[in-house]
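Entry:
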Amino acid sequence: MTIELKNIGMIKEAIVKIDGLTVIAGENDTGKSTLSKALFLAYNSMSLENRKELDNLQRKNIIGKKIKDSIFSKQSFKSSSYIKLVSNNKSFKYKDEYINDELYKKDIQISNIAFIETPLVWNLQYLFRTSIDLESHLRSFGEDIEIPYPFLMKDLYFKLSTQQKYIEDWTSKYKDDIVSLIDGEFIKDEDGIFRFYRKNKKFELNEIATGIKYFGLLQVLLDNNRLNSYSLIILDEPEVHLHPQWQLEMAKLIAKFIKNGVKVLINSHSPYMIEALELYAKKEKINHNFYLAQKKDEYATISDVTFNLEPIYSKLAKAIQILEEQSLENFEW
């Protein structure tokens, strides 16, 4: 499957393949997250399967508009903007709040998409739980109210709190690997709140290191059967919360997921993370595609660099090169 963007945010045009591992590398403010959000929006605007009465008709999509208004600014879409998903010569096109149906979720064999922006979603679980209970209570009295909070975090919290029925045997092994790595486990208690358990001791999540929280997200998604061969997961700069050694562990784990059918899109500006992803992708012999996002004037471009990652390393290593040059300038012989 490929995603095509035109005039979305700072991205003028882009075509990116989503298959196995997809990595979009680049500095901050180069459109990496824009493409990921566009994929999330398009997927959640799609129908599950073909409905003959709607086939090939342009129609208004209320759910898509709600998501778009939640994760994009009003300036991100213009009259010429669109998002297109293409697979096996069929396409799904999202243009503003209207869509054209030719391609469906069943066609691309993705039943679940999780977007991880930040592990700090754990810090807000009391807020989300209280707000959801309040919304439910008010609706029972006929008041259609929704409390505004970050949509992607709310969506992720829902996936952390609910289970899918579809189970695959391989997930338990990697759940155990995560538990071993972080020396503990995230468990939902009877009050519906997750806590971290280590050696029979219970910890509130605001006491837990952010890196552990990140791996905890994957552990719970595995527990809830939301990481399987029909899943797509988007990781937005996971290295921000992980020290270099755990970046390698994350890359290794991601490659194992993909080996078992999970599709993964990663935005990254870490040379450690990107090099590790390249290494484990080749080691596990999984499909992989690397792209470089760059900004020129007010626009961003996304280029396929799969067969030569040197432009990525050259761009992201610039800060280290500057430090080395300045150190040499100040060195006294």
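The radius of gyration is 21 Å.
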